[in-house]
From TrEMBL:
<dbReference type="InterPro" id="IPR029065">
    <property type="entry name" value="Enolase_C-like"/>
</dbReference>
<dbReference type="Pfam" id="PF13378">
    <property type="entry name" value="MR_MLE_C"/>
</dbReference>
<dbReference type="GO" id="GO:0003824">
    <property type="term" value="F:catalytic activity"/>
</dbReference>
<feature type="domain" description="Mandelate racemase/muconate lactonizing enzyme C-terminal">
    <location>
        <begin position="152"/>
        <end position="246"/>
    </location>
</feature>
<dbReference type="InterPro" id="IPR029017">
    <property type="entry name" value="Enolase-like_N"/>
</dbReference>
<protein>
    <submittedName>
        <fullName>Dipeptide epimerase</fullName>
    </submittedName>
</protein>
<dbReference type="GO" id="GO:0046872">
    <property type="term" value="F:metal ion binding"/>
</dbReference>
<dbReference type="InterPro" id="IPR036849">
    <property type="entry name" value="Enolase-like_C_sf"/>
</dbReference>
<dbReference type="InterPro" id="IPR013342">
    <property type="entry name" value="Mandelate_racemase_C"/>
</dbReference>
<keyword id="KW-0479">Metal-binding</keyword>
Length: 381
């Protein structure tokens, strides 16, 4: 079946409160929604989140690559009907081009947006759920909470709220300022039974990363995520050797080639996989399989401000993966002033999120919400 029309809409959905880390403070979601129409009239939706400090993509460069390179390629393809096998998913992903350019590691967010829209559209056309391709291995997905780089008082308030809400895993953004005081206060608030991990978004130099791990190790921190900037696998291996907290890579892991190099150098203990960052579900699965073979643990992360589209895709993937230690996302209207789906897929008490069984990605997107928050419309036929 051919795809006959695409509509690409970048969004600005306000947050309920700002979300800050060491490199950025965000007050709205800047997701890009891809809407595809098939020859039989079926509509499918995908989502991309462009992050210059992750893949090198900006919203503007992502839009341009989507409208030119990707659409001009896929509009000529006659797509096969869905098959209940993961090989079909790989075939769909492989039809979507990506590229490197000046300052861009890979147009992975752009690719992911189209991959999700194609999967949603083609599966809906046959009244099939993505769970047909990725049958769940668990009945619920357990999500983490996240504490931004706020004041100690606000961090403790959020930590106590998460504990009351029954969350067992919490990630704390660290900046190099009052790290020990904040983490000590949070640990006191949640007790020893709650899993804590830290995320630096590349804010530390090598020595600073070692030092903060040495200072925080006594607080029983389960992982330290991307404390240094995107670095060589050898640098990561040295940090892993010297730091007393298990190391997780994020911005240093964008492509399959990144994963292979990190594994070869025994560089880390965790991979943080994000569907938009990694170029879609298929490429995320390939990296996850490499990690599991190498004995590296997995966090299925998210981009700040994801809407229900990426949240739904993450739910399916988290339920299917053989082993995932931490899961992030599905914040819904906990963070967005308004999400874009008719059904809420926000996690509930205990961080629990149920399985999605409806056709496609399992959600119904409200076009009126897209209209409300879009600031540009790109349409091609």
């Amino acid at each position: 079946m051919k795809i006959i029309e695409v509509t690409i809409t970048p969004l600005k959905i306000p947050f309920t409160e700002s979300f800050s880390h060491s490199t950025k403070s965000r007050t709205y979601s800047d997701s890009i929604v891809v809407k595809l129409k098939a020859a039989d009239g079926t509509i499918g939706y995908g989502e991309a989140v462009a992050r210059p400090y992750v893949t090198g993509e900006t919203v503007e460069s992502c839009l341009q690559f989507m409208a030119s390179a990707i659409w001009e390629h896929i509009k000529h393809i006659d797509y096969p009907e869905p098959e209940p096998d993961i090989s079909w998913l790989y075939k769909i992903s492989e039809t979507i081009p990506t590229a490197k350019s000046q300052g861009v590691i890979a147009f992975n967010a752009a690719k992911a947006g189209f991959e999700l829209a194609l999967l949603d559209c083609l599966l809906k056309s046959q009244n099939l759920s993505l769970s047909t391709i990725l049958p769940p291995k668990r009945n619920t997905v357990i999500y983490s909470g996240a504490i931004t780089s706020s004041s100690i008082e606000k961090a403790v308030k959020n930590a106590k709220s998460f504990k009351l809400f029954g969350l067992k895993h919490i990630k704390v953004k660290v900046t190099g300022e009052e790290d020990f005081s904040r983490l000590y206060a949070i640990r006191q608030a949640v007790g020893q039974e709650t899993s804590l991990r830290i995320d630096g978004n590349g804010t530390y130099d090598f020595d600073g990363a070692v030092r903060v791990c040495e200072e925080l190790a006594q607080l029983n921190i389960d992982s330290a995520e991307q404390l240094i900037e995107r670095s060589t696998p050898q640098t990561w291996a040295k940090l892993r050797e010297m730091a007393p907290i298990p190391q997780m890579v994020d911005e240093s892991l964008v492509t399959i080639e990144d994963a292979e190099a990190l594994i070869a150098a025994s560089s880390c203990d965790f991979f943080n996989l994000r569907i938009s960052k990694c170029g879609g579900i298929a490429q995320t699965i390939r990296i996850a399989q490499l990690a599991q073979t190498a004995g590296i643990k997995i966090q299925l992360g998210c981009q700040v401000g994801e809407t229900a589209i990426l949240s739904a895709a993450g739910r399916h993937l988290a339920a299917w993966l053989d082993d995932v230690t931490f899961v992030e996302g599905s914040y819904g209207d906990l963070l967005l002033c308004e999400d874009i789906s008719r059904e809420s897929i926000r996690f509930g008490n205990g961080g629990k999120g149920g399985l999605l069984r409806k056709p496609g990605l399992g959600i119904e997107v409200k076009d009126e919400i897209l209209e409300k928050y879009t600031w540009q419309r790109i349409q091609r036929m």
